[in-house]
Design goal:
2 copies of one chain form a homodimer.
Chain A: H1 12-22, E1 25-29, E2 34-36, E3 44-50, E4 53-58, E5 64-70, E6 75-77, E7 87-91, E8 95-101, H2 102-106, H3 116-141, H4 146-158, E9 165-167, H5 172-179, H6 183-195, E10 199-202, E11 205-208
Antiparallel strand pairs in A: 1-8, 2-7, 3-6, 3-8, 4-5, 4-7, 9-11, 10-11
Chain A binds a DNA duplex (30 and 30 nucleotides) through residues 144-147, 171-173, 181-189, 191.
Chain lengths: 211, 211
DNA sequence: AAAACAGTGTTGCAATTGCAACAAAAATTA
DNA sequence: TAATTTTTGTTGCAATTGCAACACTGTTTT
């Protein structure tokens, strides 16, 4: 399933008109700035147009978890989270985000907006894509050891490359937060994986030898 | 956000017509039967109409993980999973499941099916709901200790009840598989939680004392 | 009703993991 | 380019977790 843009099949001119109709707002954020925190009270959906961001949460021990990596066409928002889950989205590069009120997408367009249905369909695809990603995340997190978490995440990253190698999309520190494990324990396990001949690493370039 | 039926806002008679147009199939399953395994090659979406089921996976060590508990209006399907993830859906009670080809929902209805747009909108709500549930699951699984996993899951179950008590929706054995932890270690931790005055239990009835 | 099975509750022990602390390397900022 | 901050890599030790084994209870099946 390829990832589609929310505007797939709608012309530039029509997009502009629709954005007005939806009262959509396009905002830009510099690297490291906070895009949203849990203080939002309107049910907004955010759609990454360009750039990358991390969805993060800190628990009461101060441990950070990276809930999700966001890239172009990723959707996020309070609509998708239960209240009280203290989550924020932090730009990891300069980025553009489109905010639309969820109700505008869900409800039948009163102004008879021409391409409303196309947009709804595109939205359906984006949400499906998000579900795929969340399922992957659940699959990785439900592995019972650090070793298995690493292997299944690495396998996922390598799966699109016949050479079985890939560039880690973030730092090892962030990887630990993404897998929800202690960083030093993870580093130790990566060393073990290398010694046991499962992987080879060169900085952030990782190659799977066997699985 | 309340959970909507996929047929919300469509009359009984129209539903019948649409099901034909979509080539949808309604199947019934007895308790403990397998609803789907990964052998499916068509991109079908399953929608639970009645009954309950578990989405499960066994890893190479024979450990079972309960990926997800399915109840009426839950959606599931290969479209939402990456290939090769060896997942099956097992009925935990007698149930009815509606299967629709994903493409039929996504694509513009050629026959100009009257309520297609309503159904697409309903689908959007179901997928949003699913994303909420998956995010909850990620939140729980990303807790670093069995104690925190238990507490955050219990908190979720108790959140709708002012008395802060709830009935565990499955056996303790299944709970361990759902949290992806060893059962005996989990039982030990539940005992600790009781001794430390966090919870009280009486069979499957659990009350949160403090959090 | 007896037998078989599934779920609960418990424990000792070994393996894994988290924590704390540190040095060195790399990247960023001044 | 010097100074500062972040990231990587490592280790000992303590705490948590998984494993294996067992008894006991409740629930199905024959």
């Amino acid at each position: 399933m390829e990832v589609k843009s929310i505007f797939e099949g709608i012309s530039e001119a029509d997009i502009e008109k629709m954005l007005k109709c939806f009262e959509a707002r396009k905002l830009t954020f510099k690297k490291d700035r906070t895009i949203v925190t849990n203080i939002i009270n309107v049910k907004l959906i955010g759609i990454m147009l360009s750039g990358t961001a991390n969805m993060e949460r800190y628990d009461y021990n101060g441990n950070r978890s990276i809930i999700e990596k966001l890239s172009p066409n990723s959707v996020f928002g309070e609509v998708f989270s239960r209240l009280g889950s203290d989550i924020s989205v932090i730009a990891t590069s300069d980025c553009e985000v489109l905010f639309i009120e969820y109700e505008h997408i869900i409800k039948k367009c009163k102004k008879g907006c021409l391409y409303h249905n196309i947009l709804t369909n595109n939205m359906l695809k984006l949400l499906s894509q998000k579900i795929v990603e969340l399922n992957e995340r659940v699959e990785i997190l439900s592995k019972r050891s650090i070793r298995d978490k690493l292997l299944s995440y690495f396998e996922l990253l390598a799966s699109s490359n016949p050479k079985r190698s890939f560039l880690l999309p973030f730092t090892y520190t962030d990887l630990a937060d993404y897998l929800s494990v202690d960083r030093s324990a993870m580093m130790r396990e990566i060393k073990n994986l290398k010694e046991d001949g499962f992987i080879q690493t060169n900085g952030k370039k990782i190659t799977i030898i066997r699985y």
